[in-house]
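Incident review: delayed structure delivery

Summary: a single-chain prediction request sat in the queue longer than the usual turnaround. Root cause was a stuck worker, restarted by the on-call engineer. No data loss occurred. The affected request and its eventual output are reproduced below so the record is complete for anyone auditing the incident later.

Affected input:
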Amino acid sequence: MTAAAAPAGAKSSMAYSYFVVFILAVVYTLNFLDRQIVAILAEPIRKDLNLTDTQLGMLGGIVFAAFYTTFGLPVAWLADRARRVWIISGACALWSLFTVLCGTAQNFVQLALYRMGVGIGEAGGSPPSYSLISDYFPPEKRGVGLAVYSLGCPPAR
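Output delivered after worker restart:
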């Protein structure tokens, strides 16, 4: 989406631009929390589904990460060619649906499939968000917009 195709008034109202980036940061926070939920609830999940250490590690690692990273590339490509708000909305709906489904899992295979769905959905969060922020912030203020967005996720340790 070019600057000319940005939402009406987006370039003229910095207050609205900050509102947009604040909402994106909240979505980013939920995205991060969803990524970490298996680690946060590791012991209750292990006990409920009788998982091994290997299975639990796979759920928080390769099962999720492979899909999150793989699907991030086509979503980034799509973010340059389609409506970013719809991509973010669809991705949020998808990962929310699969997060709910994770709560219904009865075994490792079901939970692994649902975590893959969470990874695919979450891959649609950041790439279009960066592009959308670029639509709402002029180049000289874009760093501030991206910094506010980055507040949604703590740095890796």
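Verification: Confidence is low (pLDDT under 50) at residues 1-5.
Action items: add queue-age alerting; document worker restart procedure.
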